[in-house]
Write a sequence for this structure.
């Protein structure tokens, strides 16, 4: 074993139900390959590599039972970061440090599990290592509840978030249906520029409930006048209205309904807040009926108690397949899945050049939004349904889900 090489994996971006399943897949396949001595994990993403804060995951997860526990634990076992590498032509200090740490620990394979910004790190680091003729293989493993990565049918974490959102709105519909009064309830759902999460609320509809009655996505310009009119017209037909809305809806000029324009994160993204509350006040002031807003916020990200088994299994498989491709010599790629059949639902796994994915964004197709811009089509329903299938068998202790303790 002394002549064998090591693998380093890190996680980045926002947490999900399924990102640890991908981590479990990477660890499991690495150790099963017989070609890896140790699997290291970096604390808090690429920043942990820079600080040389590494742990030996292959010692911690040394049997299938522990791997299974990791697979069913939400959030990010290794912690996260939101750190953007600079252009190496302007400042290569981070790259020099990363390569130094990797070589020191005999790391030949580096895996980064994350979303759009994480794939930017994969692209930059793989290109730098190749230019420097360093035999280091860099592989991206996808995750994001936003489902906005290109070159993949859907991203791990999205299916479970969609299942939570649809379930929550179904339960909200039961809550509101008992009152004999006019009411409007607005559910604000994550999604800055891509409306996949808000669109998934359509799965809450049943033979007895049309909720959500209206769905608004950022892919269509939002008109407050049209919104108020939509609500007015629906109130003529029914007393309780439930509305799903993406946090990132904006007007025809591209201005977010609710944003703090002077406040941006390190990637230049405008920080959004209060879309549902703004619309609540708008309905109160224009229509005057009972109205309230609910912001699902972070609750939709890590609800492992209602995770999609399909989501967890695919996330685990993506981690495993990524290891296989890297050991075949692939670098500068993201492992992906593509749908091959709708009924029965099947997927196939492959890799795609990271340059076609990093810093790009996949949005909801216009043809999957209705003409009025206040609902989604049956094509969206067909796309979504397979992703929420199956239940995760969470173990319980003292009445609560039993998860691995995340301590960095």
């Amino acid at each position: 074993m002394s002549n064998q090489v090591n693998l380093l994996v890190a996680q980045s971006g926002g947490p999900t139900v399924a990102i640890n399943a991908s981590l479990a897949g990477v660890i499991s396949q690495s150790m099963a390959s017989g070609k890896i001595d140790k699997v290291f994990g970096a604390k808090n993403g690429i920043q942990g590599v820079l600080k040389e804060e590494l742990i030996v995951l292959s010692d911690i997860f040394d049997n299938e039972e522990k791997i299974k526990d990791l697979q069913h634990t939400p959030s990010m076992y290794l912690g996260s970061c939101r750190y953007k590498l600079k252009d190496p032509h302007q400042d290569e200090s981070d790259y020099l440090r990363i390569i130094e740490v990797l070589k020191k620990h005999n790391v030949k394979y580096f895996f980064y599990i994350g979303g759009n910004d994480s794939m930017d790190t994969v692209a930059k680091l793989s290109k730098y290592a190749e230019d420097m003729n360093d035999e280091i293989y860099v592989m991206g493993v996808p995750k994001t509840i936003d489902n906005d990565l290109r070159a993949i049918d859907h991203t791990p974490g999205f299916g479970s978030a969609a299942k939570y959102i649809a379930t929550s709105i179904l339960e909200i519909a039961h809550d509101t249906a008992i009152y004999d009064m006019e009411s409007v309830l607005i559910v604000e759902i994550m999604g800055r520029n891509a409306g996949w999460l808000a669109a998934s609320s359509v799965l809450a509809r049943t033979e007895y409930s049309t909720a959500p009655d209206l769905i608004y996505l950022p892919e269509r310009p939002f008109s407050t006048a049209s919104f108020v009119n939509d609500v007015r017209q629906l109130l003529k037909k029914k007393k309780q209205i439930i509305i799903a809305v993406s946090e990132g809806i904006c007007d025809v000029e591209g201005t977010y309904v609710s944003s703090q324009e002077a406040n941006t994160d390190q990637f230049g993204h405008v920080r959004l807040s209060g879309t549902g509350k703004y619309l609540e006040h708008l309905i109160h002031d224009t229509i005057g009926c009972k109205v309230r807003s609910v912001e699902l916020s972070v609750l939709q990200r890590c609800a492992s108690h209602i995770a999609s088994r399909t989501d967890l299994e695919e996330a685990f498989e993506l981690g495993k397949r990524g290891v296989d491709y890297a050991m075949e010599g692939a670098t500068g790629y993201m492992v992906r899945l593509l749908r091959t059949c709708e009924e029965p639902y099947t997927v196939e796994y492959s890799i795609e050049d990271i340059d076609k994915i990093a810093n790009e964004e996949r949005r909801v197709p216009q043809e999957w939004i209705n003409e009025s811009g206040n609902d989604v089509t049956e094509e969206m329903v067909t796309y979504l349904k397979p992703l929420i299938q199956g239940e995760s068998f969470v173990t319980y202790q003292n009445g609560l889900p039993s998860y691995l303790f995340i301590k960095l």
